[in-house]
Each structure stands twice: as C-alpha cells, then as structure tokens.
C-alpha cells in the first residue's frame, strides 16, 4: 500500500484511538488486582488488563515505526488532551457490576474491530488484529458468562446489572464516534468505519443481553458520549494518567 | 591464513534451540512451542532468528530473546540477531506433538487441536491430565499465567490447569 502524508496522519490518529482505548481500559482493569470479589475474578481482571495493555504496546510500536515517540513516552508522558480514548474507558472502576458491564460492551466492540482489521490494507495492523482477536475471545467468554449469569441469578443481581447497563450504555456508544478521516481510511481500505462496527456490535450484544434478561434503552433515548476521539475527556482521565505515569516520570531514562 | 568455518546448518540451530525452554513452563522448548518462525543463516555464519509471541502481553518475550541469543552464540556463529514479529501469528495448533506431551509432563492439560475457531465449549470438559476423565468443569478461563485456564476434575477431585487453546 502506498500512502501519502495526509493519509499517514489519519492512520496515526486511528492507531492512537485503538491503542489508547486498550491502554486506559487495561489500566482500569488492573485496578481490580487485589480487590476482586473472589480470587478467580481478581485473576481474570488482572489477566485481561495484561492482555489489553500488551496489545496496546504493539500498536504503539507501529506508531513508533511511523516516526512517533517510543511506546513508554507515548503511554506515560502525554497530556490528557493528546489521548484519543473513549469516555467509557476512563471511568473509575466503581462497583463490580459497572466494571463488568463496561468490559462486556468494550470487549465485543474491540473483538469485532479486530475482526474487521484482520483484512486491513495496513499490513502490520492486520497481523496484530489476526492475533488479538483470538486473545480477546477469552475476554468475551468472561464478560458474557457473568452478564448472563448475574442478569438472571436473583432480584438483586438483576437490578444491579440493569442499572449498570443503563449507566454504561451511552458511554459505550461513544466508542463509535466517527472521525473526520473516516472516508479517507475507507478509501485506502484501512478500516470500514465506526457505523459499520456499531451495527455489528449492536446485533451481537442484543442477543446476549436478551438471554440475560436485560433491556437496552430505546433508540430515541440514546445520547452517545462523544468527545474522547477529539481529545475532550471526562474529569477522570487526568488523575488516572497522573497516577499511571508517576513512577516513569521520576526518572524517564531509567532502564527497567 | 584464517581458518574457514564450516557453515552452521538450520538443523544444528533448531537442535540447539531444543535446549531453550519456556521460562514459565520449563518442560517445553521454544521449538516445540512453535514460536520459532524463521531461521536464516548468511554466508559468514551470521544467524537471524524470528520468534512470534504466544500471547501479546506475555512478559517472557524479552527473556526468551535473550536466552535464544545466548544459546546461538555457543555455536560458532559470527553474530546473532533475534527479533519478535507478528508476521506469522501463533496459535496452539503450532505446538508439536512432542510439545503437547511436554505440557502434560508439567501437569498441564494440553490444548486440543482446533479448526481455527475456539468456542467456550472447548473449555467445558477438558480431559484431566491426572486421570484422563472428561467429567471436569471449567473454573475460570484465566489462570496463573495468560496461557492457562483453571479446571476441576469431578472424578479424581483434583484441581488442574490447561494450556488453553488459542486460535
């Protein structure tokens, strides 16, 4: 594929968006380490964190090969406004039901995105996508199992899951905020666009939520939480970045 | 006159790499794990080796690169380069038959061969590595390392881990 400078800039923005989502939600998942409601959940959230952060690293490596900073600087030294993650990923972990529902929505979108990207014309990204979708399958197994189980277990678990869904849904729609460069990326066969992804996602989550006895808000009530892809974030991102990069900033040249 | 070295063969290299084990599962070699995807020998015995990660978030990647480098330098190589790329994507079907036996020796249920699509049902009744029973249950798809899931055998009442199938 031969790409011009304008497309190069678009592709970088696109890569930042995918990897930043993974890094930030990965970090949030890691905040469950030591706090999980049962040991297996502690391990599950920590493992999912390790996968997602590891995956973001290899995308940052592609960015580095395109002239951006090294992955550590990208991850730990950027300002909040330079991040392109969606609002969904930024929220504090809250209660277990919120974190679970967030992962459920995110995992499906992430898995479908990489399924689409497996045939992207951007070869290094397509290679990663082919690998990542197999790994994310396990994240989906995890969140699907719990959403289905807790959705129907008893009244309290059902009420909590429904309330978590209601709180999370508009944030989840924010994942699919379309970028100005969407047409350009479609043109060069890098990515088919967020609306295609959102439709696939909606179909997939609907069938599982149905089995879980949980209800999706009516379309007329949808208010997607947009802004993240343009660098406009919730109040939660900055303090999180502050903490995440604290040790790195003590000595950016240290060898670990 | 400088003595001409005999060229190192690919077979010699792979044989040497049989000694390099997965740092997290010391019974299986990197070759049997299926992660050595390319071996290249140039005229002056400069050796390039390509590895592919089992899991993208595997913390042992750098350690494995170093172990491979050290092992190859024991051969009469003029230099060695080891890189990890995703050009070939690893999946559990790439583990050799010998590798599957090595996993079992470590007490792990080996991953079953798959046709490219791994479903949750694959994990429901994994064969117990101790008593071979399929009357087992999945406890969690995540275990002590990224590549393992947790199971329980309802016949021999033993908890066990599986090296989980990945497509």
Structure in a nutshell:
The complex is a heterodimer of chains A (256) and B (167). In chain A, 67% of the residues lie in helices and 0% in strands.
Which descriptors apply to this entry?
heterodimer, A: 256 residues, mainly alpha, 11 helices, B: 167 residues, alpha/beta, GMP Synthetase, Chain A, domain 3, 2 domains, 3-stranded mixed beta sheet, 5 helices
Topology:
The complex is a heterodimer of chains A (256) and B (167).
Chain A: H1 5-30, H2 39-65, H3 71-76, H4 87-90, H5 96-117, H6 123-152, H7 155-173, H8 182-187, H9 194-211, H10 237-244, H11 246-250
Helix pairs in contact in A: 1-2, 2-6, 5-6, 5-7, 5-9, 6-7
Chain B: H1 10-17, E1 21-22, E2 25-29, H2 30-33, E3 36-41, E4 46-51, H3 61-74, E5 79-84, H4 97-105, E6 108-109, H5 121-124, E7 136-140, E8 148-153, E9 159-163
Parallel strand pairs in B: 4-5, 6-9
Antiparallel strand pairs in B: 1-2, 3-4, 7-8, 8-9
Describe the structure.
The complex is a heterodimer of chains A (256) and B (167). Chain A is an all-alpha fold. In chain A, 45% of the residues are buried. Chain A has eleven helices and no strands. Chain A has a single domain (5-216, 224-249), classed as Up-down Bundle (Ferritin), CATH 1.20.1260. Chain A is globular. The model of chain A has no long low-confidence stretch (mean pLDDT 96). Chain B is an alpha/beta fold and 167 residues long. Chain B folds into two domains: 10-84, GMP Synthetase, Chain A, domain 3; 109-163. Chain B is 23% helix and 26% strand. Chain B contains five helices and nine strands. Chain B has a four-stranded mixed beta sheet. Chain B is elongated and about 60 Å long.
């Amino acid at each position: 594929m031969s790409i011009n400078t304008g497309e190069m800039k678009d592709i970088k923005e696109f890569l930042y968006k995918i990897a930043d989502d993974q890094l930030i939600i990965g970090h949030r998942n890691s905040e469950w380490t030591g706090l999980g409601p049962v040991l297996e959940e502690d391990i599950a959230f920590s493992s999912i964190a390790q996968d997602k952060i590891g995956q973001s690293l290899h995308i940052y490596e592609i960015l580095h090969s395109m002239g951006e900073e090294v992955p550590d600087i990208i991850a730990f030294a950027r300002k909040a406004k330079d991040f392109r993650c969606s609002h969904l990923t930024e929220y504090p972990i809250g209660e277990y039901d919120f974190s679970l529902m967030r992962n459920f929505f995110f995992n499906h979108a992430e898995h479908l995105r990489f399924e689409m990207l497996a045939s992207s014309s951007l070869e290094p990204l397509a290679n990663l996508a082919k690998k990542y979708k197999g790994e994310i399958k396990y994240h989906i197994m995890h969140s699907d199992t719990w959403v289905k189980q807790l959705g129907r277990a008893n009244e309290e678990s059902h009420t909590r899951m429904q309330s978590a869904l209601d709180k999370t849904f508009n944030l989840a729609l924010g994942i699919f905020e379309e970028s100005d460069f969407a047409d350009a990326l479609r043109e060069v066969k890098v990515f088919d666009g967020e609306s295609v992804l959102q439709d696939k996602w909606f179909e997939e989550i609907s069938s599982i939520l149905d089995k879980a006895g949980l209800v999706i808000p009516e379309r007329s009530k949808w208010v997607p939480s947009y802004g993240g892809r343009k660098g406009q974030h919730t109040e939660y991102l900055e303090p999180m970045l502050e903490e995440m990069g604290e040790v790195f900033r003590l000595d950016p040249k240290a060898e670990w | 006159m400088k003595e001409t070295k005999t060229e190192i063969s690919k077979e010699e290299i792979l044989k040497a790499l049989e000694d390099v084990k997965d740092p997290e599962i010391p019974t299986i070699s990197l070759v049997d794990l299926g992660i050595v995807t390319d071996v290249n020998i140039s005229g002056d015995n400069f050796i390039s080796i390509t590895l592919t990660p089992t899991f993208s978030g595997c913390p042992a990647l750098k350690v494995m690169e170093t172990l491979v480098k050290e092992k190859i330098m024991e051969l009469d190589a003029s230099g060695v380069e080891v890189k990890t790329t995703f050009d070939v994507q690893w999946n559990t079907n790439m583990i050799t038959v010998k590798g599957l036996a090595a996993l079992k020796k470590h007490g792990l249920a080996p991953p079953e061969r798959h046709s490219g699509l791994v479903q949750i049902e694959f994990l429901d009744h994994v064969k117990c590595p101790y008593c071979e029973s399929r009357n087992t249950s999945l406890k969690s798809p995540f275990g002590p390392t990224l590549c393992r899931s947790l199971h329980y055998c309802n016949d021999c009442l033993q908890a066990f881990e599986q090296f989980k199938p990945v497509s």
